[in-house]
């Protein structure tokens, strides 16, 4: 089994990189585990209290559950992956059944921030992008998918996203085996990555 960690700032192009990797494997023998699914359960909080949570801080994640479930997959056990809704800022009752696969991709802004999680990974990747490019993508995504206004997104970027990126996400570059600059636009780096993973996964399935 090949466990790949893919980290990077919000809007850096992580999802694009993951999508291209999955496509290169024809969607077979690969499972993608989004770190966003492992935000803490906040059922005990009111909606107003939930909206005040800093989702770009390491304390927002249920690290114990994420590490436990990646460990289970590595040991050949299926998991019930939690699901999360940004609309209600909480987990949903539904889970996603995930079977062990030759390739497991753990993707999220802080996928490389926890030492125990990193120890479970065979390959660690950091997807990098200019701050301006990330901001544009965040504005587009949050307006369309999360019902926020441009003013809300920019205010959150200045007060939360930027400082948290500099404090907690950017430093995890040092743990990466490969840094992909220009995010999902770096076709050469993505092609090299796809070739490497396809080769390794082929060996895994023999």
Automatic annotation (TrEMBL):
Keywords: ATP-binding, Cytoplasm, Kinase, Nucleotide-binding, Transferase
GO molecular function term, any single one: uridine kinase activity
Gene3D superfamilies, sorted: P-loop containing nucleotide triphosphate hydrolases
Pathway: Pyrimidine metabolism; CTP biosynthesis via salvage pathway; CTP from cytidine: step 1/3; Pyrimidine metabolism; UMP biosynthesis via salvage pathway; UMP from uridine: step 1/1
Entry GO CC: cytoplasm
Domain Phosphoribulokinase/uridine kinase: 3-186
InterPro entries in the record: P-loop_NTPase, PRK/URK, Uridine_kinase-like
Subcellular location per the Swiss-Prot or TrEMBL entry: Cytoplasm
Reaction catalysed by this enzyme: cytidine + ATP = CMP + ADP + H(+); uridine + ATP = UMP + ADP + H(+)
The protein's Enzyme Commission number: 2.7.1.48
NCBIfam families registered for this protein in UniProt: PRK05480.1, udk
Similarity field: Belongs to the uridine kinase family.
Protein name per Swiss-Prot or TrEMBL: Uridine kinase
């Amino acid at each position: 089994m090949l466990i790949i960690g893919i980290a990077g700032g919000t809007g850096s192009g992580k999802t694009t990189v993951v999508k291209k990797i999955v496509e290169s494997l024809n969607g077979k023998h690969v499972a993608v585990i989004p770190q966003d699914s492992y935000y803490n359960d906040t059922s005990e909080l009111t909606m107003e209290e939930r909206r005040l949570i800093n989702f770009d801080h390491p304390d927002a994640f249920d690290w114990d559950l994420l590490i436990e479930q990646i460990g289970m997959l590595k040991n050949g056990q299926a998991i019930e992956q939690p699901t999360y809704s940004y609309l209600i800022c909480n987990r949903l009752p539904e889970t996603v059944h995930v079977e062990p696969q030759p390739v497991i991709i753990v993707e999220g802004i802080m996928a490389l921030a926890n030492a125990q999680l990193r120890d479970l990974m065979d390959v660690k990747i950091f997807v990098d992008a200019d701050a301006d490019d990330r901001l544009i993508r965040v504005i587009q995504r949050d307006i369309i998918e999360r019902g926020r206004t441009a003013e809300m997104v920019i205010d959150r970027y200045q007060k939360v996203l930027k400082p948290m990126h500099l404090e907690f996400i950017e430093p995890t570059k040092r743990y990466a085996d490969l840094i992909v600059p220009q995010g999902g636009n770096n076709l050469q780096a993505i092609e090299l990555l796809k070739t490497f993973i396809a080769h390794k996964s082929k060996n895994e399935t023999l």
